[in-house]
Amino acid sequence: MLRFVLHRMVQMVPLLIGITFLSFVVVDLAPGDFFDTLSMNPSISPEMVREMKQEFGYGQPLPVRYGRWLWRVAHLDLGMSVAYRVGVLELIESRAMNTVILAVASMIFTWALAIPIGIVVALRRGTLLDRSLSFVAFFGMSVPSFFLSFLLMYLALETGWFPVGGTTSLDYPILSPLEKIGDRLAHLVLPVLVLGTGGMASLMRLMRSQLLEIQSADYVRTARAKGVPEWIVVSKHILRNALNPFVTLAGYELGTLLGGAALVEAVMNLQGLGTLMLDAVRSLDLYLVMGSVLMSSVLLLLGNLFADVALTLVDPRIDFSHLEAVR
To answer: How far apart are CA 311 and CA 132, in angstroms?
Structure first.
């Protein structure tokens, strides 16, 4: 296992270099840069803009700028944001907690509901319950997340049941610890509902199809023919074998933590990494964009590695020699 993990970690290095280099080239090919906007401000002299360009290495050949950025990354320095004039790592750390809380809460909401509902509709196939929940699932997958965000925000505005937008209330710093937790949870309800609804619907349909396929397997029919209690057949023979795609999905979702919440954060004015990334792309803040790309790529690769390791724990048919052979 250790050899497999180390080998995959080594493989990540050229992958990350390739991903970041392509991203660097794409951002560099975009028309204009952050300093073009500054140069249109009459209160900023051209000499000052020129000095700032030199300070951040603009004007140098692309391979030189990328090489210098990569060298800093190797020393755990992601550079400085040209828009905020603050270290990229410091900016990401200041927003990461909000996005992590939102993403983890959404995943818990999604998985805690999708798997039990998927099991129920699969075991009650063809019944009114199956058709009703399937209709709800298709509806959840069909509604765009930004539209659902607006609907829920309008509902909150009309009823006053939940805060409309923002990560915390204005008086958050003076609240007691328990009140802070309650304030955070109240602000999480709407974004978690938006992010979780679409994911829950698709996971529920996936669980249903997996269970229906495995229910007709020979070993399941054999277990039932031997008189094994139904709950053991479902929990031990059906459910366990149906979890493989979910383990893979869990690894993939780790890499989509940043991008998945970006739209909801922008619509609901949440101070997370998603809005930070969008602002960086809009203002062509090169080093902040590269820091976000690097962080997303690392999470995606680590998520896939964790998924491969977790698969060996869930499915005894998969071992590390098999993974080595596949690799």
So the answer is: 33
Enter the DSSP assignment of 279: H
12-32 pLDDT per residue, tens: 888 999 999 998 888 888 777
Report the pLDDT averaged over residues 47-66: 80
CA nearest neighbour of 220 among 244, 237, 236, 241: 237
In angstroms, the CA 74 to CA 76 distance is 6
pTM score of the predicted model: 0.72
Write out the two tokens for 160.
């006053």
- Distance between CA 323 and CA 68 in Å, rounded? 36
State the Cα–Cα distance between residues 20 and 17, nearest whole angstrom.
5
Instruction: For the chain, give the secondary structure using H, E and C.
Output: CHHHHHHHHHHHHHHHHHHHHHHHHHHHHCCCCHHHHHHCCCCCCHHHHHHHHHHCCCCCCHHHHHHHHHHHHHCCCCCECCCCCCEHHHHHHHHHHHHHHHHHHHHHHHHHHHHHHHHHHHHCCCCHHHHHHHHHHHHHHHCCHHHHHHHHHHHHHHHCCCCCCCCCCCCHHHCCHHHHHHHHHHHHHHHHHHHHHHHHHHHHHHHHHHHHHHHCCHHHHHHHHCCCCHHHHHHHHHHHHHCHHHHHHHHHHHHCHHHHCHHHHHHCCCCCHHHHHHHHHHCCCHHHHHHHHHHHHHHHHHHHHHHHHHHHHHCCCCCHHHHHHHC
* Tokens (6 digits) for 71: 């060298």
Give the model confidence (pLDDT) of 90-118 as tens digits: 888 888 788 888 888 888 888 888 888 88
Distance CA 196, CA 202 (A): 10
52 exposed, middle or buried (CB, 10 Å; 0-12, 13-18, 19+)?
middle
At 146, the amino acid letter reads F
Residue 324 has pLDDT above 60, yes or no: no
Residues in the chain: 327
